User: What shape does this take?
Amino acid sequence: MANVKNKQPVFLVVVDDSEEMHQALQFACGRARSVGGHVALMYCILPTKSGLWAGIGELMREEAREEAEAKMGIHADYVKKLTNSTPILYVREGNISDELLSLIDEEHDISLLVLGADIRAETAGPLITFLMSRGASRCRVPITVVPGNLTDEQLDALF
Assistant: This one.
């Protein structure tokens, strides 16, 4: 029988400004704690338009990167507090749907994608809508959608 490496699962959360991202992060941290896994965070920077004002575009890109790193730092501290483990951080630039699927394809340690569902809108959110309509067939890992109205206590009780 072949020697199978027993690797720790990695739970990926997409960092954005939505309220429901907190529930996804809380769930991923609880899951990581309960099975001895890790949390990974991905932040996607929208590409800047280049052209006549390339210098301004580069400045905007640098500012966006600094903002991404600041947001990731805040969430990384929260993950470390909840899991006692430093999360894996990914900052990408481009279309979020494409970058997310590319990251999952490239990083084979990622075991599960965890997303928070918007409960105030008509849809669960643009990324979830994309994944459920046509992106799921291109995603090589299971997707967990966490309702955005769950409390930390309700989520922690799952583990």
